[in-house]
UniProtKB/TrEMBL annotation:
<dbReference type="InterPro" id="IPR014588">
    <property type="entry name" value="ATPase_Atu1862_pred"/>
</dbReference>
<dbReference type="Pfam" id="PF01935">
    <property type="entry name" value="DUF87"/>
</dbReference>
<keyword id="KW-0547">Nucleotide-binding</keyword>
<dbReference type="InterPro" id="IPR002789">
    <property type="entry name" value="HerA_central"/>
</dbReference>
<dbReference type="GO" id="GO:0005524">
    <property type="term" value="F:ATP binding"/>
</dbReference>
<protein>
    <submittedName>
        <fullName>ATP-binding protein</fullName>
    </submittedName>
</protein>
<keyword id="KW-0067">ATP-binding</keyword>
<dbReference type="InterPro" id="IPR008571">
    <property type="entry name" value="HerA-like"/>
</dbReference>
<dbReference type="InterPro" id="IPR027417">
    <property type="entry name" value="P-loop_NTPase"/>
</dbReference>
Length: 478
């Protein structure tokens, strides 16, 4: 069944339809400079489809919260939520089929990336039974899928860019139809923009953006300058959901409006300069700052556990020296940390803090394992070897080889060593990705080539899979 909406009118005055069924399968990219009418276009599209399909809107400026008043969208204020809550909210929104506006206007750029990434990942990871169709609209997409890093941390940028890539590259089979709008194509990651099959190109002035827009629409380079002549709310449309040939469309009217209105030109009356001088340059009373009181900050949870343990152990301190930590207990604690949900993809510092907390609860010192020792033991646990075999001389050789490598590759090396030691098949790409702490299978496969370059393994591709030999110990995978 085909369902269409009227997006606007063409130059001949006829309605320009947008095939919603086709749009769900082919995605949409909207581009235009500030003031070209992108937000108006998105609002028109959202209003016309609000009663037809579920919607999720990533709103960095709070422009679309007014949709809730007329169409019943749930507005989520990010400043009041944690990343875990937002990830769960994305999953529950799909399960309960709720249209949502993720309002990001009250948080800084770092939190905007983290919040958008967490929410989109929650929508993406929902079980197959809830893969209902959803229009996912991302305004100012260049903020969430930038070509290069900015003032935000690499971790936040990777989280957001990974979520946007999943939305545009792999979202179709999960029912997610990405609609992304950007001021500048040159600032938007190419692997995100390239997945759209429908385009609406608005007014653009920079040569590089006009050239890219013309390429996407299949127009000649000399025709690219026509994008400078487009009026506000006028776009060139192309794609299976819009038109098979570039088509000019003027976006129709909308029923709701943004809270944020543009500047209005009012009559200006200049004041008398001398009178203004007294108002503007009136002396400001400088207050003498009060001396700051030194207050002892409240102890954190780990410090409280330290204090409690010290008080409990004080009567016994003189009776017997503190015993060494039991290796079996350390193995148990690290195994518990490794078994937490999503532990494979969490930063090592977060996992180490979790381990320290568990160690203090068991009455062990916070420094029972330093970060380097914890990382190595965690990689050993994740490799799948048993605690008994981990004490063997053979495994000590494998650990010595792994310790000569960069820390982020040690987990991959020990996973391969475990498979080779037991004569098991070579781990698949997904297992290698978990060991490396990434969702990218290609990045995980590249670690095999790196280990071969470092003369740690010998890799041989065969018809039925891979075979890996561990150099120096003579082990081979099946």
């Amino acid at each position: 069944m085909t369902v269409s909406i009227a997006l606007g009118r063409g130059r001949d005055g006829a309605d320009v339809p947008l095939d919603l069924t086709e749009l769900l399968a082919t995605r949409l990219l909207v581009q235009g400079n500030s003031g070209s009418g992108k937000s108006h276009l998105l609002r028109r599209l959202l209003e016309q489809t609000a009663q037809l399909v579920q919607q999720a809107i990533i709103d960095p400026e709070g422009d679309f919260v007014t949709l809730a008043e007329k169409f019943g969208h749930l507005v989520i204020d990010v400043s009041e939520q944690t990343e875990a809550t937002l990830r769960a909210a994305g999953e529950r929104a799909r399960i309960h089929r709720a249209s949502v506006v993720l309002n990001l206007e009250s948080v800084d750029a770092e939190m905007q990336l983290r919040a958008a990434g967490a929410f989109l990942n929650g929508m993406f990871d929902v079980p197959r039974a809830h893969w209902y169709p959803v229009l996912v609209v991302v305004d100012e997409a260049q903020l969430f899928a930038p070509v290069t890093g900015g003032d935000t941390s690499d971790e936040a940028r990777r989280l957001s860019l990974g979520a946007m890539t999943n939305l545009m590259c792999r979202g179709r089979k999960r029912g997610l139809a990405g609609i992304i709008a950007t001021q500048r194509l040159a600032k938007l990651a190419k692997n995100v923009a390239a997945e759209a099959s429908n385009f609406l190109m608005g007014r653009t002035f920079l040569d590089i953006d006009m050239a890219r827009a013309a390429d996407l629409l299949g127009m000649e380079r000399r025709a690219a300058e026509s994008f400078r002549d487009l009026q506000r709310g006028q776009f060139m449309a192309l794609g299976p959901a819009l038109s098979r040939r570039p088509l000019s469309v003027t976006i129709g009217k909308v029923e709701t409006a943004s809270h944020a209105t543009g500047p209005a030109l009012l009559p200006f009356e200049a004041g008398i300069a001398e009178e203004m001088r007294d108002l503007i340059l009136e002396p400001v009373a400088e207050m003498t700052p009060r001396p700051r009181e030194r207050r002892t900050p409240p102890p954190d949870l780990l410090a409280q556990l330290d204090a409690y343990s010290a008080e409990r152990a004080m009567p016994m301190a003189e009776a017997a020296p503190r015993a060494e930590a039991d290796p079996a207990k350390l193995w148990e604690l690290v195994s518990a940390v490794a078994s937490e949900p999503e532990a494979d993809y969490r930063p090592i510092a977060t996992l180490y803090q979790d381990f320290q907390l568990r160690a203090r609860i068991e009455g062990l010192g916070r420094d029972v394992l330093d970060m380097t020792a914890f990382r190595l033991l965690l990689a050993t646990v994740r490799s799948g070897i048993s605690a008994e075999h981990a004490e063997s001389e053979e495994w000590r050789q494998a650990e010595a080889i792994a310790q000569s490598l960069p820390e982020d590759v040690q987990g991959v090396a020990l996973l391969l060593a475990r498979a080779a030691l037991g004569g098991l098949p070579c781990p698949d790409d997904e297992a290698l990705a978990r060991a490396y702490g990434t969702h990218s299978l290609g990045r995980a496969r590249r670690q095999l080539a790196y280990l071969e370059e470092r003369h740690v393994i010998v890799l041989r591709e065969e018809g039925q899979g891979r075979r890996v030999a561990f150099i120096g110990v003579g082990w081979q995978t099946a």
